[in-house]
Write a structure and sequence with these properties.
By secondary structure, the chain is α+β, with helices and mostly antiparallel strands. The chain has two domains: 2-107, no CATH class; 141-305, Glutaredoxin. Helix content is 46%, strand content 20%.
């Protein structure tokens, strides 16, 4: 906290140099969202400017940017020379104006998401999902288009189950290893659910791609499942060197993995692995990254599909 306050004070001292002369950016400059996007393009990457207004401090804009469904405020001086990404704290009120704004944006995003879901699954189900899954789930979940989604590389559970979910995961991902245990707990009790696994080896995991190749090139489903389970066991035991034993070169698998990476890396980008996909209607799905517990999975399933 001391470091945060020091950094904030330093920023405030820097900003105070130019506070004396003008009332605010928008009182002297008329700038559109489009122009803000163009000026900030060199540092925004894939982030998109969605709004621009006066900041809580003089001579700065508050620019709301969106990346992968999440909106956050950043602060830009009137001349667009400097951008500040961090908290503005009201010293007298002892509150973070930035966090207050982010909470407002989060509430607006959940409200809009529920409205979109109502159009897809109906008002009753959308409201029930919000109640059962909770606000944290609704904040993280995204409504996405899954038309053209790659076929699963293996199936966990009954392949003929009435309800089919999908998991995008990396066989060397620690969070995926934890999630795999939760999925197995679900499958013990729920024969009506199956999980199609779509492999997404991350570039910084040196064994993940060739372990994925090995899984894909197996003709027997049980063997595929065994390799994935063994990979996760090694990850949990921190025996990364043993993952080398599960690697395999397989040309047949290369274009399959490339398609997975293209779809979930660019077309419908995920926020990380594991990511769970809950199919809805008309090629739409609810997609959420992170580890879900058994109760949450079942609550979402029972709300969406019953």
């Amino acid at each position: 906290m001391k470091k945060l306050i020091f950094a904030t004070i330093t920023s405030l001292i820097f900003m105070s140099v130019s506070f004396a002369e003008e009332e605010g950016c928008l009182s002297t400059t008329d700038i559109s969202v489009k122009e803000a996007q163009e000026r900030l393009a060199p540092i925004l990457g894939r982030a998109k400017v969605v709004s621009i207004s006066e900041a809580p401090i003089e001579d700065f804009y508050e620019v709301i940017v969106e990346l992968r469904g999440r909106k956050i405020p950043v602060y830009v001086d009137c001349d667009f020379k400097y951008l500040i990404s961090g908290e503005i704290i009201d010293i007298q009120k002892k509150e973070s104006l930035t966090r207050k704004k982010m909470l407002e944006l989060s509430k607006e995003a959940v409200k809009e998401k529920v409205k979109q879901l109502e159009a897809i699954i109906g008002k009753d189900k959308a409201q029930k999902l919000k109640e059962k899954a909770g606000i944290a789930f609704m904040q993280k979940a995204k409504i996405v288009n899954i038309k053209g989604m790659p076929k699963e590389n293996l199936v966990l559970g009954n392949p003929n189950a009435k309800i089919k979910l999908y998991i995008i995961e990396d066989p060397e991902c620690p969070a995926c290893a934890v999630y795999h245990d939760n999925v197995e707990e679900v499958l013990k009790d729920r024969k009506d659910i199956s999980f199609g696994v779509i492999l997404f080896p991350l570039p910084f995991h040196k064994h993940a791609k060739k372990v994925s190749y090995n899984i894909i090139c197996q003709s027997d489903m049980k063997k595929k499942q065994e390799i994935l389970k063994k990979s996760f066991e090694y990850v949990k035991e921190r025996k990364s060197s043993k993952l080398k034993q599960l690697e395999k070169d397989c040309k047949k698998a290369e274009p399959i993995i490339d398609k997975n990476l293209e779809f979930f890396g660019k077309k419908t980008p995920i926020g990380g692995t594991p990511t769970t996909v809950f199919p809805l209607k008309e090629g739409k799905a609810l997609m959420i990254s992170g580890v879900l517990d058994k109760e949450t999975i079942e609550d979402v399933v029972d709300t969406l599909y019953k």
